[in-house]
Every structure is written in structure tokens, then in C-alpha cells.
Amino acid sequence: MNEKNSFFSDGDYISGFSNNKFSTWEYTEPVTTDMVNSPAHYTAGRHEAIEVIEDAIDKAPSCKQGFLQAQVLKYILRMWHKSNSKEDAEKAQWYLTRLIDSLNY
Question: In b/e form, how buried is each residue of 1-12, taking b as 16+ CB within 10 angstroms?
């Protein structure tokens, strides 16, 4: 291995460049996920989570209650697509408790 490549092992991926055993460093198309517009944990399934949430909160009696409901749905809809499902379930529960408390009007 020459000094130029000494910090990297075969299969390392650095800013769109990879080193295979048969050539020098060459550009490869990066695999990108649009974490702003289409994160995988919100777009899995037949419907995008934001569309489900927007439809669900459309008739909320207040902005606060719509927000709380949206948060509950967000965490429930993505919980199996993230690494810590229990944490997402607990976050949903936290928002659900606040939503239920807000209904005591």
C-alpha cells in the first residue's frame, strides 16, 4: 500500500472516492439519502408520513392540539424504521399524555 492510501482500507468511502484493488483512487457516484426532503424513516410504506399527519390534524380544535397529535403520529409512524423503537414509543407517549391533558377543557 502506498503512503497516499495508507489511512484507508479497501472498501472505504471518502467523499465520493473509493479504492479498489485494481486501480488507483477513482470517483464513484455517492449513495445519497435526502434527509431533509425524503428521509427513509418517513417515506417507508405506501404513504409519506407528512401526508398522513397533515390529513389527521386538519380538524384539530387548536394549533396546540394539532401539534401534539402530529408529534404522536410522527413518532409512531417512524418507530420501526429507526434504531431505537422504544425511545420513539416513549416520545409518542409523552406527547400523547400532553394531548390528553389538553382535552380537559
Answer: eeeeeeeeeeee
* C-beta separation of 72 from 99 below 8 A: yes
Enclosing H/E stretch for 75: helix 63-78
Residue 26: φ, ψ to 5°: -140, 155
Which tens digits make up the pLDDT trace of 79-102?
998 899 999 999 999 999 999 999
CA 71 centroid distance within chain: 14
| pTM, rounded to two decimals | 0.61
Q: How many CB atoms lie within 10 A of CB 95?
A: 19
Q: What is the DSSP string of 21-73?
A: TTSS-EE-------TTT--HHHH-SSS-HHHHHHHHHTT-SSHHHHHHHHHHH
Integer distance in angstroms from the first to the last C-alpha of the chain? 71
34-70: pLDDT as tens digits: 777 776 766 667 788 899 999 999 999 999 999 999 9
